[in-house]
Amino acid sequence: MNKINLTKEELLNKLEKQIVSQIQLGWRSRLVKIGLEDTLEQIKKGKKGIVILAKDFSERSKRKLFNVFKGKCYYFLTKAKLGKILGKQEVGVLFIPYNRFSLKLENLLNQYLTLQGGNSSCQS
Fold it and tell me: In sequence order, which residues have a C-beta less than 8 Å from that of residue 104 and are 6 or more positions away?
């Protein structure tokens, strides 16, 4: 059996593409909520899930979110890039309720951030 050796960059690009396609699939399936207000609304309804924040998400909005959200959180891409993959201008935050879909996405994000040498926790 031939093993294909990928460089770290190639592997990161592949994982990023998989994460992006998962987010797009979740958005089309109406599993992903976007924007701070929708995210806060889901949390106030008692929904559990994961949050994906844009790397350039504002500090003020982060404080507002972390006052009510104590779950798992990941930094991924910028607001412009997150918006582009969802067909919007800019998106700063995504909320994905816990289910099989979110577990797969969370696994991909963990792999991506570990390979990148990053910290998956937003609340540090």
Answer: 22
